[in-house]
C-alpha cells in the first residue's frame, strides 16, 4: 500500500476505499466513488465557511497562522515592508519575482500612465449623493469601468489582461481620492505623474490651492508600508469572491467590484472602521475592563481581534504598531492609541481571549494610524482596497491560467421538502415573512 494514501471503510457497505493524499489533501471528488448503490450520488464533504477546504493551489501568498508567518512569493512580509515599495511588491505578487531596476522603472511608468480617469467616470462619481459612503462609490465606480473598457471582456488574452491590471492598479487611488473629495465637497484633483504612487494619492486627496503638492515623506512611506501589508492575504473572503466571480469569465472590473464589496463587510476589511467606533464608544482607558466584560458576556465582538487563520499575533499588526510610532512623531499621538494599548494588554491576559487564541489583527492598529494621518473612518476600507486590488488581480490571473479551475459552483446538502402537492390560495395558512 503506498504511504501517501488514506484508507476509508464505509460502514454502511463494509467496503474500503484508498484515496491518494497530495500536499496534505485528499480530493473531494475522490469521495464521490463512495456509494451505497447505483442510485446513490456519492459522498460529499460538508464545509460551511470553508473551514477546512482548499479551493485552489496557489503560489502567491503563504500564511502559517500558528507561527504568525506571512510571505509573498517566498519573501517575508517584514523584509518587504523594510526594503520595498508598494509597486515593487505588486509586481512581485503579480509576476512571481522581484523586478530588476529596469523592469521596475517600466512598471512604475506604465501604472502611472493609467492613473487618469475618463471624464465620464468622473461625472458618474459626481452623480452620487453628497454623503455617499466612499466604499460604496469605489465598488460602483470600479464596476462602471467595465463599461469604459469593453476590451476587458477578452479575458483569455494575456496582453489584454495585463492592460486591465495596469489600468486598475493605476486607477484605484484616483477613484479612492475622488470618493473622498466628493464626500467632503471638494473639487476633484487630477493625478500628478511626477509623484510616487502614494505621494500622488496624497496629492489627489489633500491638494488645495498650492500649485504643486508636496507630500510629507514620513507619511508617504508609512502609507506605502500599509499598502505593502495589505497587498494580498491568500484565500480570504474578498479573494474568494474575486476567484468565484472571475470563474464565470466575467471581466476583471466586475470581479474586482465584487471582491471590494466582500471587503466592505465589518467582519473583513470593514473591521478597521468598526475598531475606531469601538474605541470612541469605550471613551477612556478606565472603561476598558467594563467593555471587555461586556464582550465576554456575549455582547458583541472585540473588533480588530481574532482571525480565521492567525492563531498567533498577526505579523502585519506588529509592523503597523512600529510604523504608527513614526507617524505619531509627525502628527502627534492619537489619544485612541492609549485605549487600544490598554485593550490589548487586558485582552492578552484574559483567559477568554487567550484560550480562543484571539490576538490583534491588521485592522486593530491601522485605523488609529489612518486617523492620525487625517483620514475619516469611512475611508479606512477604501485604503485597504487600493493595495488589495494587486492581490485580487494576481489571484484572478492564477485562477484563469490554472487548467484545474472551472466555474466555482459548490454543492449543497438538501434539507427542504420532498415534492408536495400545490395548495390552492384559499387553503393556505399565513407564514411569517421574517422567520
Ligand atoms: N471578540 C470576541 N470573541 C471573538 C472574537 C472577537 N473579535 N473573534 C472570535 N471570537 C470568539 C467567537 O465568539 C468564538 O467563541 P466560542 O468558541 O465561544 O463560540 C471563538 O472566538 C472562535 O471564533 P469564530 O467566530 O469561530 O472565528 P472565525 O474564524 O469564524 O472568525 C473573525 C474570524 C475575524 C471573523 C472573527 O475573529 C471576528 O469577527 N473578529 C472581529 C472582526 C475583525 O476584526 N475582522 C478583521 C479580520 S482581519 C482582516 C481581514 O480579514 O479583513
Comma- or semicolon-separated keywords:
single chain; about 425 residues; mainly alpha; Citrate Synthase, domain 1; 3-stranded antiparallel beta sheet; two-stranded antiparallel ribbon; binds carboxymethyl coenzyme *A
Describe this structure in words.
- By secondary structure, the protein is mainly alpha-helical.
- The protein has helices at 77-83, 86-95, 101-113, 119-126, 134-148, 158-184, 197-206, 217-229, 237-246, 252-263, 271-282, 288-296, 315-331, 336-349, 351-355, 362-373, 380-400, and strands spanning 5-10, 15-20, 61-64, 69-72, 75-76.
- It has a single domain (90-410), classed as Citrate Synthase, domain 1.
- The chain contains 17 helices and five strands.
- A hairpin with a 4-residue loop joins strand 3 and strand 4.
- Helix 11 crosses helix 16 (362-373).
- The relative contact order is 0.12.
- Carboxymethyl coenzyme *A (CMC) is lined by residues 236, 267-269, 271, 295, 301-308, 356, 358, 361-363.
Radius of gyration from CA coordinates:
24 Å
Which blocks of ≥5 consecutive residues have pLDDT under 50? none
CATH superfamily: Citrate Synthase, domain 1
> Beta-sheet strand percentage?
5-15%
Which ligands occur here?
Answer: carboxymethyl coenzyme *A
Secondary-structure-derived class: mainly alpha
Strand order of the largest sheet: 3-4-5
Oligomer: single chain
Distance between the termini: 52 Å
